[in-house]
Amino acid sequence: MTFRLKRRAAPRSWTVPRKGTKWIKRPSPGPHAQDRSIPLLLVLRDLRRIVTSAREARILVGSGAVRVDGQVIDDLSRGIGLMDTVSFAKPLDQHFRMLHDRRGKLVLVPIPSTEAAVKIGRVRFKHAVRGGKVEVTLHDGRNFVVAASTPYHVGDSVKISLPGQKVVEHFALKPGVLAFVAGGSHVGELARVEKVEVRNSSQPNLVHFKEGFSTIKEYVFVVGETTPAVTIAEGVDR
Description:
The chain is mainly beta. It is built from 2 helices and 17 strands.
């Protein structure tokens, strides 16, 4: 693995110009894949334009003014991905959530300060551990252990508190719930689930929506029952 990344090879989900300096910041290994996250440096310099250089960004994060998911972050390579919260201390006193727009680009959506203390995570894996319990892994790499009887399934979502990860609400992937589409041709849209089609083959399971389209289960992110549990700007444009 190389620690360098050419600007022209940057993921298409990044809202950065293709022309400019030859090299660009590469996200460090972390909770999100490289093509699904954007380095904190680019968030500060290119998305929000709070700083104009990497030197200014180092000074800013060194002062403890930047929090990601409720924790102070001083690594400019830290990748910021879907549903992560980014907070800037006073005098800025601003809070954002990372989402996808209609083009699949990663964008920051303003949120109230109260929402900076919560996020929604999608259940990606689950497996049995000692003591008759189950370990649940979320889309951002978080892990927590629950009783085997807890009705968490792959594709469900949980609302957790930050910076800890206490589960405060559970959203099952089932007909009638509201979902955010995180990939495919309908990326960035909010839609209501009609049914989940389970395929007994190598093909991925499908989720059909009442709006008249369908997508693979991996792209479906349940965000609430009747309304979004957090601020979701549907189809936000940069």
